[in-house]
Each structure stands twice: as structure tokens, then as C-alpha cells.
Amino acid sequence: MLRRITLYFLMLFVLVGVGIFTYSNALINRLENEYRSISIAYADVSSAIITAVTRGDVSLVLLKDITDSLRRMLKFPAIVVSANGEQIECRNLPGDLQPVDAASRIEVLRLAAEMDEDSDPIPLVERRVHESTGTVEERLVATLHYSSPEIITTLSWLPVVGIAFILIFGGLGLFANHRFRLSEQQAIWVGLAKETAHQLGTPVSSLLGWLELLGEDPAEAGNVREEMTRDVKRLGQIVNRFAEVGHPPALEPTDLREVVREALEYCRRRISLANVKLEDELADVGLVPLSAVLFGWVIENLVRNAAEALANPGDGGTKGRRRPRRGRITVVLRRAPRGVELEVTDSGAGMNALVRRRAFDAGHSTKVRGWGLGLTLVRRIIVEYHHGRIRLKSAPGEGTRFTITLPA
């Protein structure tokens, strides 16, 4: 799931980057075309003025007014150089540069050459119509050199800046995600080591006790043998659990009610349930595809958590201890519209919102000596291995309920 989310974010970053780059280029091209259109219009009107002056048309004043208006519209650097190079008119050059002397004329002509590298110069021509032949003769009068306005230069950096921001924040996100995964993996490894010690501790301690009893009273060998056999089977079950939890197990049609019943019987024998009443309502739900070894582990984890919540009520969110309270743990198995449901409910102190949000996070625990792996394993076994759902409902003073839904 985490890898898929990371991949989706990377794809989103790429799409946003491509979108910014495409939109910015389209906007820049549009602005460049508009400014070129203005330059061409200026050149056309100027050519018309030149022709009108030559022909002595009365529209000279009107055309000159239009040219002045267009000249005021030129908000970008522009240079008009006469055909013989003697007359130069400049607008919007850096530092309000004007060709007032030889050095400034050379600089202006250099800028005009640079402008031609980015934008094709536009000719200003005088047009003469020969009345006898009707042909039009064009004579080059001047050349308009121009470059993109400063706003286009600024906009050209927009996709670079946008992609840079995306790369920076994307890199920070990936780094944070990497650190989170390392922290989570470390918590899982530490939790697995402690869980292994905890799982093995109970049957091993029991076996040592039975051996000591045999040494003191050999006559009890018959009863002790049965108990030792049960503990050895328990050790084998623990080995199978850790062998299967590392990869998706094979799911086989299994009597779910029997699996739950066996897990509850073990809880009644080996989990401290002082002042706690463990009740069950197990309906016959038939065969369900599951891993009996791992699902039994789920039941034990949930019942153990409930028992510890009753033995150490706290305040629903701290690791402080209070006086153990009498309580009830209820396990209900029933059919549901989309499969089967298993509920584990306790009458403990409940969880506050912060604890509830982090309940399934690896390494998070409200117990004094908890290692925060039990519920992480529960969710992994139910969601990833059995393709089911697990929901948590809890509030301070109202107890806690875990609801597991499995497809059947």
C-alpha cells in the first residue's frame, strides 16, 4: 500500500510538472505571437505613412496619429534602423539607451543584431504603383528589430521554477517517506524480537515447571505428560506463526468457529483473566478460507489487549496505572451481509482520539512495557493476508470494540 501511494505521488508530480511546462510554453508562444503581430502592424502603418508622404496623400496626419499610438503600444525593446544605417530610433532599451554618439550607436546596432537572433526583423518599405503598368515596386526604407518583453523572459522561467519546487518537495516527501519506513521497519523488528520472546516464554516456562514437578513427584508423570505434550504443540504452533507471517499464507476452507473456540480456550488457560469474565457467542458460520494458525494469533492478541486494558485501565491514552477493574470481554461470531463478522468487545477505559488514530501503527503502545506490534500484526493478517477489514470503535469510558469482517 505504501509503495502504491508513493508511486501515485510520483506520477502526480510528473503530471503537474508536465502540465506547468506545457501551459507555460503555450502562454509564452501566445504572447510572443501577439507582440510580433503588434510589431508587424507598426511596420505596416509605418510603411503606409512613408508611401503616403511620397504620394502626398491627405491621410498623412491620420496615419501619423495611428503610428504614434502604435509606438506607445510598443512596451518591448525595439530598434528602427534606416536602410542606409544613418537614422536610428530606439524604444525601451536597457538603461534608456539612445544613439547619441558613436559609442552608443555601436551598442544599439549590437543589440539589434542580438534581437535578430531571437526574432526575425520586420522590413519597413515604401510602395510605389506604376500607373502605366499597374505593378507595385517596393523599396526598403528601414528595418524594425525587436525582442521579447521582460514579462516573457520572466514567464520562461516559470516552468523551471515550478518543476524545481516539485522536485524539491517531492524529494522531501520521498525522504520523509523513506525515514518513516525505516523507523517503522525498526519498530517491527524490535517488536518481533520481543513478541518472539514473549510467545516462546510461556510454553518454555511451563515445560520447565513440569520438569521440576516430575523431579519432585514422579507419580504425576501421566498428567504431566499430557500438559507437556500440549506445550510442545504450542511451541510448534508458534514456529508456524512466525514462518507464515512473513509472506501471504495459503488460505484453506476452515471451520472458523472451531478456530475461535480453540483460541479462546487457550486464552482462558494461559492469559491472566483475574476479575475478567470472558464470554463468547459463536454462531456456526461454516467454512471460511483462512490460515488457522495466523487467525488464532489474531484472537489471542485482541483478547490479551482487552485483558490488559482491564487490568491497567489508565485514562484511555497514557501509560499510567490505575486500580484494576472488574470487566467483561465478549467475543461474538456471526454471519454478515458480506461474509462473516467477529467482534471482540471489552468494558475497559477505552481510547481517546489520538490513541485510536495510532492504534495500528508499529511501535505505538500505551502500555508501560508494550512494544506496539500486536495490532500491527492483526491488521496485516486480516487486511493483507485474508483480504478482510478491521474496524476500531472506542471512546474514553465506553470500552473498545474491534470488528473483523472476512469474505466467505
From TrEMBL:
<dbReference type="InterPro" id="IPR003661">
    <property type="entry name" value="HisK_dim/P_dom"/>
</dbReference>
<dbReference type="InterPro" id="IPR004358">
    <property type="entry name" value="Sig_transdc_His_kin-like_C"/>
</dbReference>
<keyword id="KW-0472">Membrane</keyword>
<protein>
    <recommendedName>
        <fullName>histidine kinase</fullName>
        <ecNumber>2.7.13.3</ecNumber>
    </recommendedName>
</protein>
<dbReference type="Pfam" id="PF00512">
    <property type="entry name" value="HisKA"/>
</dbReference>
<dbReference type="GO" id="GO:0005524">
    <property type="term" value="F:ATP binding"/>
</dbReference>
<dbReference type="InterPro" id="IPR005467">
    <property type="entry name" value="His_kinase_dom"/>
</dbReference>
<feature type="domain" description="Histidine kinase">
    <location>
        <begin position="195"/>
        <end position="408"/>
    </location>
</feature>
<keyword id="KW-0812">Transmembrane</keyword>
<keyword id="KW-0808">Transferase</keyword>
<keyword id="KW-0418">Kinase</keyword>
<keyword id="KW-0547">Nucleotide-binding</keyword>
<keyword id="KW-0902">Two-component regulatory system</keyword>
<dbReference type="Pfam" id="PF02518">
    <property type="entry name" value="HATPase_c"/>
</dbReference>
<dbReference type="InterPro" id="IPR036097">
    <property type="entry name" value="HisK_dim/P_sf"/>
</dbReference>
<keyword id="KW-0597">Phosphoprotein</keyword>
<feature type="transmembrane region" description="Helical">
    <location>
        <begin position="7"/>
        <end position="28"/>
    </location>
</feature>
<keyword id="KW-1133">Transmembrane helix</keyword>
<feature type="transmembrane region" description="Helical">
    <location>
        <begin position="155"/>
        <end position="176"/>
    </location>
</feature>
<dbReference type="InterPro" id="IPR003594">
    <property type="entry name" value="HATPase_dom"/>
</dbReference>
<dbReference type="InterPro" id="IPR036890">
    <property type="entry name" value="HATPase_C_sf"/>
</dbReference>
<keyword id="KW-0067">ATP-binding</keyword>
<dbReference type="GO" id="GO:0000155">
    <property type="term" value="F:phosphorelay sensor kinase activity"/>
</dbReference>
